[in-house]
Structures are given as C-alpha cells and as structure tokens.
Write a structure and sequence with these properties.
alpha+beta, three-stranded antiparallel β-sheet, NDUFA12
C-alpha cells in the first residue's frame, strides 16, 4: 500500500497515524496465529494501559481470537498464552465472518438463491384488505 493509501484508508491495514503512534509509544506484546500483532503503551483516560491490534490484512474485528479479545479489554493482565488452558478437542477453529460475501448464509427464499420458497401450509391464511 502506498503512502496515500496509508494516509486515507483505515479498512485495509493500519493508517499512517496508527503506524506513527505504534512506533513512538507502542511495545509489542505478542502475535496470534493469524499474524495480527498486539501492542500496548501510554495510558487511556481511566489511567489503564492502552492496548491495540495491528491486523495482518483487512481490519476486521471478528479476526481477533477470544483470548486476545480478553487481553485487549483488560480482562486478563498477562499475555493470553500464560493464562489459558490448552485448547479442547471440541473447540472449533476460527472461520472468518462471511457476511457480504458469496459464502454468507442465505435461507431458502432469499433473492440471492432465486427467491423461491415452499408454499405456506397449515393454519396460515394470507391477509387481504377485502376480508372482514
């Protein structure tokens, strides 16, 4: 991404302002399995250490794993690796948010699937303005 892209876009990586703040005040804390890098430094208005993430790719908050989400929101103090138990066999791997993509969930009857649905059955009766 060029210099103009860093100045004017926020949705496809860190802006130049975030990059400058990170280089001045940020201390790298860790990195997750997706390549997102986590920093802390300075203080927020409540006096707590400010924490943030630089995404590896597009800025999408659903790409932050649960353990790092807890760290970002001060639920845990140390890095997540030092506080979490090993993963369980029933835990699913991360899947990205598919909203707005061809892989998004579309129920039967959705316009993207042709707009056809099963006819209503049972006790359903369509309203009409002439009915009393």
């Amino acid at each position: 991404m060029g210099l103009l892209g860093k100045i004017f876009t926020w949705w496809d990586g860190a802006t130049i302002g975030t990059s400058l703040y990170t280089s001045r005040k940020g201390t790298k804390v860790g990195e997750d399995h997706q390549g997102n890098v986590y920093y802390e430094g300075g203080a927020d208005v409540m006096g707590r250490t400010r924490r943030w993430v630089i995404y590896n790719g597009a800025n999408d908050a659903s790409r932050v794993p649960a353990e790092w989400h807890g760290w970002l929101h001060h639920s845990i103090e140390g890095t997540p690796e030092s506080f979490l138990p090993p993963p369980r066999i029933w835990e699913k791997d991360f899947t990205p948010n598919a909203t707005g993509t061809p892989h998004a969930y579309r129920p039967s009857g959705a316009l993207e699937k042709g707009g056809h649905r099963q006819r209503a059955t049972g006790d359903y009766e369509a309203w009409s303005p002439d009915a009393s």
